[in-house]
Amino acid sequence: MKVIKVNELPFMKTGWGIKGKPIIDMPEIGIVNLVMEPGEKVPSHKTPVNVLFQVIEGKGMITIGDETQIAEAGDIVVSPTQVPHALEANQGCVFSVYVIKTPNPQKSAVK
Q1: What burial letters (b/e) apply to 71-91, b meaning 16+ CB within 10 Å?
Q2: Is the CB of residue 72 less than 8 Å from the CB of residue 58?
């Protein structure tokens, strides 16, 4: 059994300058924990795979296609393949999200 101690993993920076922790980086699934401070954004972009956003802490805006919703801790939002999506920490609190990609389209979103 492999146990991943997420709280012990180091933070890195994404291409958007946001703190992220690579959690799982396997061909069939990639999981990164993005931790966004108030005012930070991930701009709208598409991915060649399905993406699930699981909100771990706080709340913020998630846009999928033409729809925007406030998502909060406990919510999971689905973004289908090739549909533009964006995240924004605009609710005055930290917005921590697991970004789950299946299958994993790249080695990692963080550097």
Answers
A1: beeeeebebeeeeebebbbbe
A2: yes
Q: What is the pLDDT of residue 111?
A: 46
Distance, in Å, from the CA atom of 48 to the CA atom of 72, rounded to the nearest integer, reads 25
Q: Say how far apart CA 83 and CA 94 lie, in whole Å.
A: 25
Q: What is the predicted pLDDT for the residue at 109?
A: 52
CB 16 within 8 A of CB 42: yes
What is the chain's length? 111
Residue-averaged pLDDT of the chain: 93
Nearest to 56 by CA among 79, 39, 32: 32
Average pLDDT for 54-70: 98
Q: What DSSP element (H or E) covers 57?
A: strand 50-57
Rounded-to-integer distance, Cα 47 and Cα 61, Å: 19
Q: Sign of torsion, CA 60 37 16 25? A: negative
